[in-house]
Amino acid sequence: MSYDRYVSPLSERYASKEMQYVFSPDKKFKTWRRLWIALAETEKELGLSITQEQIDELKAHAEDINYEVAKEREKVVRHDVMSHVYAYGQQCPKAKGIIHLGATSCYVGDNTDIIVMSEALEIVRKKLINVIAELAKFANNYKSQPTLAFTHFQPAQPTTVGKRATLWMQEFLMDLQDLEYVKSTLKLLGSKGTTGTQASFLELFDGDQEKIDQIDPMIAKKLGFEACYPVSGQTYSRKVDTRVLNVLAGIAASAHKFSNDIRLLQHLKEVEEPFEKTQIGSSAMAYKRNPMRSERIASLSRYVMIDALNPAITSATQWFERTLDDSANKRLSVPEGFLAIDGILDLCLNVVDGLVVYPKVIEKRLMSELPFMATENIMMDAVKAGGDRQELHERIRELSMEAGRNVKEKGLDNNLLDLIAADPAFGLNEEELKKTMDPAKYVGRAPLQVENFLKKVVDPVLEANKDVLGMTAEINV
Question: Where do the Adenylosuccinate lyase C-terminal domain residues begin and end (predicted)?
Answer without folding.
Answer: 370-454
